[in-house]
Amino acid sequence: MAETALPKRKEMVATKTLKKIMADHFYELDEAAKSGYRKIAWCTSVGPAELLRGLGFLVYFPENHGALLGATRMASEMIPHANAIGYSPDICSYLTSDVGAFLQGKTPLTAAYGIKSVPRPDVLVFNTNQCRDVQDWFSWYGRELNVPVIGVHTHRDIGPIREYQVKDIASQIKDLVPKLEEVTGSALDMELLREAVSLSKRTSELWRACLEAASAVPSPWTFFDATIHMGPAVVARGTKAAVSYYEMLYEELKERINQGTAAIEGERHRLYWEGMPIWGKLRPLSEEFAALKTCVVASTYCNSWIFDQLDPAEPFESMALAYTELFIVRDEGYKERYIEECKRLFRFDGIIFHDAKTCPNNSNNRYGMPERIAEKLGIPTLTINGDLNDLRCYSEEQAKTNIEAFIEQLEGA
Amino acid sequence: MSDVFAGVDVGASRTKVALLAADKHLVGKSVMRSGTDFQSTAERCLDEALAEAGQKRSGIKSCVSTGYGRNNVSFRNDTVTEISCHARGCYHYFPVAMTVIDIGSQDNKVIRVDARGRRTSFKMNRKCAAGTGAFLEEMSMRLDIPLEDMDGLARNAVETVELGSYCTVFSGTEVLEKIRQGKAVADIVRGLFLSVIKRVLEMDILSDTVVMTGGVVAHNPFLVEMVKELTGKEVLVPQYPQFTGAVGAALFAIDI
């Protein structure tokens, strides 16, 4: 049943532009770090990036660097160095691999772009909507580099969003302004902020359209493709480059749909991926699913960079709302309804939950959700044990057997 | 001489071969240590099973391999995971809705099968040896008793020494502590059996009839009795529990 040859994958044309955008992003930061011509802010992945752009900062995202450490499989080598200074192997492996790499003076940017080190920050800005670990992560750098650490403390386990929650977050974001102005030495330009919010909104709309292209049968791309192509949505949101990129990507996906081009030739099954990617195993997993004629069509993870509520007319309030609407800070009921909606749109016939050892916030299998969803939606679920970056927590053979057995189950074995 | 259908289950510890006739009767079987050369072990195991069946390789109509080393069997026609094979093998012997518990050397599986033989769900143990055959092997070394003596010891125990930890290393330390406290080895072994059972029972709810398979069950029938007592459920065991996966693979071979 697993004796299928690996189908040929069709490379996305947009990949070339993607690589250029990512390279430009890092070169610009490197140049600014060396010359000091622009201030640099480090920002958590769903931190107030628009505000930082509005203040003229170049923005660097350590979580993106964490993902690069994972994807290049440097992470497992770096994590022990952070463990040795007291950062537990049980906490976020983005944090431990990033701190470990810094301690070792290593970065995947060297092999990829010839850049010697990550850009030195002038300020570190977090939003705990991802987790509390981001604050601890930035605090380590704050102490190490003697740089101010400021941030937004999110609400959690949110059902319906209440006005007080949005007001609170908006007020916290506003409170950042004077501290950031102190770093830049100039006042916030509201027009620049509105422009960044507007570009971010447009990026988000286009990113959503790209992701929803996978609702076509057969799907023109996979979750694994999307984890790569989401780069600009993370690091360049709020810029014109990101908007142009997703316009181009969306056109390519539409063309694929019109031509009936399938990401997985002979697509037999469609799955949803819930939880973090296993960065160091993207390729083997992608190939395994392809060999099983299975397309992982959608994921909560890639959807997490859709910010529908951004509105340049009300930048602070809309950022607050957009960052409070996030899946990760919502209650179980909301999350289940969300996945149910995704099932309606993407028509998948099974769900894979990734239980990431070091990322409890992004592992939604731990409180009975797979069982509840399986019963409610009438589709099977599978939980894979692994991790985003720490491959010591992942058994490739066990995962392979589980995935194969899951597909066999879908085929009636 | 009629054709036979081969199921080859290359497990982490043992390789099992089952040969079925076209009418699905078991006509040959063999088991040996998997070792490090899975291909060679599979061939030797196959030859032994063929000898038992009075068959030659030319008599094999088709072959399905399963288990961790399933892709190392060059003479296979197809591969199917051990999860599907155990479910299929159990349903062959007991065609009812069931929960299959397979305790292997490296992993445990709890598989649900409906009344029509379709698998509805499965769970494997998490990334930990707790509750597997490897746990019992490690403990037999700690206690310095042969693995094959454990069943008899557990059966004759007077009490059950409960172990609190599920980590194999921590359990080892706990066992040493119990020995220091003067607990009887037999009572400790029964406690180890209980530990294995607890790890399995916490994996999933047991619904319908329970069927137990795997090497640990084959060599430790008292463990099955303990499961019956603990759960109050009827527990069925196929005639050759260690071969259930291989039989399932051979049944898939018939479908080819």
**CATH class wording of the largest domain in chain B:** Alpha Beta
| SSE sequence of chain A, one letter per element | HEHEHHHHEHEHHHHHEHEHHHEHEH
Strands in their spatial order, largest beta sheet of chain B = 3-2-1-4-5
Q: Assign an overall shape of chain B.
A: globular
Query: Can you give the helix content of chain A as a percent range?
Result: 40-55%
Structural class of chain A, by secondary structure, is alpha/beta
What is the name of the CATH topology of the largest domain in chain B?
Nucleotidyltransferase, domain 5
Characterization of this structure:
The complex is a heterodimer of chains A (413) and B (256). Chain A is built from 18 helices and eight strands. Chain A is α/β, with parallel strands linked by helices and 413 residues long. In chain A, strands 2-1-3-4 form a four-stranded parallel sheet, with helices on both faces. A four-stranded parallel sheet of chain A has the order 6-5-7-8, sandwiched between helices. In chain A, helix 3 crosses helix 5, helix 8 packs across helix 15 and helix 9 runs parallel beside helix 12. In chain A, 53% of the residues are buried. The mean pLDDT of chain A is 95. The two termini of chain B are 20 Å apart. In chain B, strands 3-2-1-4-5 form a five-stranded mixed sheet. The longest helix of chain B has 17 residues. Chain B is globular and about 60 Å long. In chain B, a hairpin with a 4-residue loop joins strand 2 and strand 3. Chain B is of the alpha/beta class and 256 residues long. Chain B has two domains: 94 residues, 2-Layer Sandwich (Nucleotidyltransferase, domain 5), CATH 3.30.420.40; 141 residues, 2-Layer Sandwich (Nucleotidyltransferase, domain 5), CATH 3.30.420.
